[in-house]
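To: structure desk
From: M.T.
Subject: fold request, one chain
Message: Could you run this one when you get a chance? Sequence is below, nothing fancy, just the single chain.
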Amino acid sequence: MNPLTAKTISKMETSRFISKNPLSKAPTVPKEENKSLFLELLPEGFAGEMLSLELRDGSLFGFPYALLSKIHLSRGNQLTLMFSEDKAVIAGIELKELYQYLIKHRVTVLREIDTRGFDLQNGKLSVSAITVEKREG
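Reply: Done. Structure tokens follow.
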């Protein structure tokens, strides 16, 4: 059961997914691209200061982009973000698009969503897991 509610906004910002009530039990899935479920983007030409990671269990992690030292995309299905003290690993499908947004600091929110029961189009961006842990060494 997905605790998020979706709302579509102006045509210019259809790629955004806004969580209106995190305690809502019935998800409303927008008919736009899959990415609207998983991330909130700034318009082209704008860069964010922080990246918020929202996990399924309700945990929230906020990281300043200034502390992001490396992004590694492996085989298109796993992204590793290295911050000064932490490491975030994102698993999903078609993450190259997400990689492009991250290197431009356009992502403000990235969500881990249980996609079981959702009709997601193959070949579209989706995020199935996010883990955050302390960096070693």
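Reply (cont.): The radius of gyration is 14 Å. Let me know if you need anything else for the meeting.
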